Amino acid sequence: MTTTKDPLERAKQTLDKLQEQNASLQKQIQASSVLEAEYERLADKQAKTSSRYDKLLMRVGDKHGKAHRVAVDMGGGSIAQASTELFNWGMRALGRWSKDGFFANNVDLLQGGPHFFLGLGLYILEMATRKDPADNNGELPSTTREVISEATKVFSQLGFNNVVRALRVRYADGKRQALDYDALLAEKQALEQKLKSLAPAQNEKR
Q: Which pLDDT band holds residue 121 (cuts at 50, 70, 90)?
């Protein structure tokens, strides 16, 4: 058995081996490039996420800062109080205009009922249309929306308090009128009894 081969055959085999090694090396290089690109992509994504998280923490800190909370609470409360007083002034004017009509007889309830329903409706609408930070790239509601939310909430609460006060006063007035009626009825009955007791004496004198 001979071990010698044709020089061309050996050169061909050597070339084939080199081509296989080159192909394997090319695959390794491509795999390394893919891994490197994937690593860079993940690193860039992590950097962006970290930056967005840091910004969100800063915004959350600002939203819960003392100055921000005072601005929102005082701004919303002042708007609610001013609008309530203006609304009540308009209702009292309507009551004076209607004299003995519907507005005059119900001006106490009208200074609270509309506030409650209007404020509650606007508050629910604002909260329903507010975007969730998780679905809005971490965006928190603006200061304007916070002030509106606070104003509608306080406006509704002021209206509810006015309604409760009006009902309490009406109940007290009704109870007082019932007591006055009972007292007048008792006095009337006493006078009738007195008149009946005086009638026989007058007949005897005749």
A: very high
Looking from the CA of 78 toward its CB, the CA atoms found within 13 Å total 7
Q: In the prediction, which pLDDT does 178 show?
A: 61
**Tens of pLDDT, residues 64-104:** 667 778 888 888 889 999 999 998 999 889 888 888 888 88
Question: Do the beta carbons of residue 154 and residue 73 sit within 8 Å?
Answer: no
- Rounded to a whole number of angstroms, the distance between the first and last alpha carbons of the chain is 176
Cα atoms in the 13 Å half-sphere on the side-chain side of 81: 6
3-state secondary structure 141-202: CCHHHHHHHHHHHHHHHHHHHHHHHHHHHHHHHHHHHHHHHHHHHHHHHHHHHHHHHHHHHH
Supply the DSSP symbol for 139: P
